[in-house]
Design brief:
The chain contains no helices and three strands. It is mainly β. It has a domain at about 5-40. Strands 2-1-3 form a three-stranded antiparallel beta sheet, with no helix packed on it. The mean pLDDT is about 80.
Length: about 70
């Protein structure tokens, strides 16, 4: 299930909720019980340059030049 961020319209507090996509825009109960209103906001995702996360290329054996020559 996706993680959504909701911001309080009064004081800017941000909370995160895991909800089904179909419930993303349903009202959010104030976790502090003070009756504040929260609205969903768009989250920004950032990827740092120089990341060590590998990018899949080539074939399943890891050969970046193409067809698998290892027989795997």
């Amino acid at each position: 299930m996706p993680l959504y961020e909701y911001v309080c319209e009064e004081d800017g507090e941000v909370i995160e909720l895991i909800r089904p996509m179909g419930r993303a825009d349903e009202p959010v109960e104030d976790p502090a019980g003070r009756g504040r209103a929260f609205r969903r906001r768009v989250s920004a995702i950032s990827v740092a340059s120089g990341s060590s996360v590998p990018i899949a290329r080539g074939c399943p054996c890891g050969n970046p030049d193409g067809p698998c020559s290892t027989g795997r």
